[in-house]
Design goal:
Structural class: alpha/beta
Largest sheet: 7 strands, mixed
Radius of gyration: 22 Å
CATH architecture of the largest domain: Alpha-Beta Complex
Bound molecules: guanosine-5'-diphosphate-alpha-D-mannose, magnesium ion
CATH topology of the largest domain: Spore Coat Polysaccharide Biosynthesis Protein SpsA, Chain A
Distance between the termini: 50 Å
CATH superfamily of the largest domain: Spore Coat Polysaccharide Biosynthesis Protein SpsA, Chain A
Number of strands: 31
Strand content: 25-35%
Helix content: 10-25%
Strand order of the largest sheet: 5-4-1-6-11-8-12
Length: 363
Amino acid sequence: MKAVLLVGGEGTRLRPLTCNTVKAMVPIVNRPFLEHLLGYLRSHGVDDIVVTLCYLPECIERRLGNGAACGVRLAYVMEKTPLGTAGAVKNAQSHLDGPFFVLNGDIMTSIDLRGMLSFHRERRAIATIALTPVENPSAYGVVETAPDGRVKRFIEKPPPGQAPTNMINAGIYVLEPEVLRCVPRGTPCMFEHHVFPTLLSEGAAVFAYPTRDYWIDIGTPEKYRQVQYDLLLGNCASALWAGEVRADGVDMERVTLHPSAMVEGPVALGAGCSVEAGARILGPTVLGEGCVISEGAVVDRTIVWRNVRFGKKASICESVVGDDCSIGDGSVIEGGCVLGDHVVISEGRRLEPAQKVWPDTTI
Ligand code: GDD
Ligand code: MG
């Protein structure tokens, strides 16, 4: 079965993490997000995949190549300028024949794709949209459904309080090739604003496939942390995450842990990490390769990328830190902060809660 992955967006809400890394490749428990997504697709029988690229395309193709390492076949199509979600699929049309899946490239889920495809075929739908319930529907595409399962209305990001339901577009579709007839070639076009409303106004057979399976859009810092908390806590699964969780003792071949350091799980530690005397790591926390947690430092419910150094008695909670950062002795980083790559926080500084620090900045 074929799928088109939409990974061309700039990931603005995840900045500064996405200044140097495309959203689809941000690490999730130390593996690029897209590798988790490909593992999911493969395990659901979808192994012929077209990746639509625009922003920072090289890093995706360089890492994933023809997809063999992930057990799938990958083809790439490039957009010189963003074509939007539907324009990107139109741009991939030469790779498509029968019905195919389309997935937003920032969704971690366990939705049953085989079940969705059977549902689509049984209903003889032209398009089937997977739905998931959320707390704040106004941040998503809200989908109103008739009792027979047909989609009645598609409202992209309604104002707060005005969503008629909390069931939203999960960013996974099964489409028949003829859907692409109403997508212009080479100009920006969105499924959400144009294609679905047009199909509905024509009375086309657009069906909703509601699910209660695990689902999250990783596209904000909070959700980016949440998906990793969920993996570490076992609330969701990935073929790439076999639960290398260390609630207490740590694999000493990969990590140097001082006898007086404390690791209170669940924690994922990258190779070559060093946790010094009296330092504490409180889970769910992820440390990328080569991180150093110096004497007495505390890392609490935080996602840390590679080669980050926390100075003595530095502390951080509920935050995200990009590659190659250095946090000075005694510095305090409060909840919700996001540090881009190569940030230096000098000794004894205190960051405000939810502060964002751009790459290569010294504070
Ligand atoms: N190739 C390509 N070209 N990809 C794009 C483009 C483009 O011009 N624009 C966006 N994308 C990709 C993004 O990289 C992302 O993986 C996906 O399309 C969705 O874009 P987002 O920017 O993350 O959209 P959203 O999260 O605000 O809303 C979308 O997803 C929600 C579910 O998370 C919509 O589809 C909503 O209706 C939906 O509820
Ligand atoms: Mg998104």
